[in-house]
Amino acid sequence: KKVPVITIDGPSGSGKGTICQLLAARLGYHYLDSGALYRLLALAAKRHGVAFDNVESLAVLAAHMDISFRTQDNGDAPRVMLEGEDVSSLIRTESVGTEASLVAAFPEVRTALLQRQRAFAVMPGLVADGRDMGTVVFTDADAKIFLTASPEERAERRYNQLIDKGESVSLAALVERVRKRDERDMNRKVSPMVPAANAILLDSTGMSIDEVLQKVVDHVTANG
Ligand code: C5P
Hints:
Layout: E1 5-9, H1 16-27, E2 30-33, H2 34-47, H3 55-64, E3 67-70, E4 79-82, E5 85-86, H4 94-103, H5 107-118, E6 126-130, H6 133-137, E7 143-148, H7 151-164, H8 171-187, E8 200-203, H9 209-223
Parallel strand pairs: 1-6, 1-7, 2-6, 7-8
Antiparallel strand pairs: 3-4, 4-5
The structure holds cytidine-5'-monophosphate.
């Protein structure tokens, strides 16, 4: 029997992460944060002294790095482990985000991560969060959603997250960085961030988390 898969793709700050986790919890499905894999690779590369343009070594690292996700019983986001160490906070910085988008532009790196991502599709089902979940990794997903929000609102959400974590950033600089990262993710040759042909587009600008979740649940139910 085929494992049910729901994909939610879109730019950072669209609310994907939160929505995917809530949806996975509601359905009792597994959750794949594919962005975390690219972030882990960037961190692992730094730690192993692999340069961000050393494609061959990056691909080897992508295929073999020792990573795992530790699900939390209290419903909190899964802890992200690299070589047995909890790096959940370390991978969430702006600089690791930028580095992740650099290594993610290499086709060899994306290929090396393909099977690792597909291995998350196990019963009772999977909610997959990323940029190319619906277009490349899980092309035959049961429901595909492309979630966006205006760059200003996405930068503002990110700003609030960073301030909560005690990072000092300027909102203007963040808007600029959000635009740059989107541009790189949308214009790269392999797996650019585009909606799958059969995805529904959902713009979360001005919507609450509950409202977005309800729309997503409606769509998933209609396709289940
Ligand atoms: O979603 P998150 O901000 O954690 O992703 C970090 C970076 O990883 C993105 O900017 C993107 O370049 C890359 N990524 C990707 N494909 C995915 C998920 C993330 O290229 N499926």
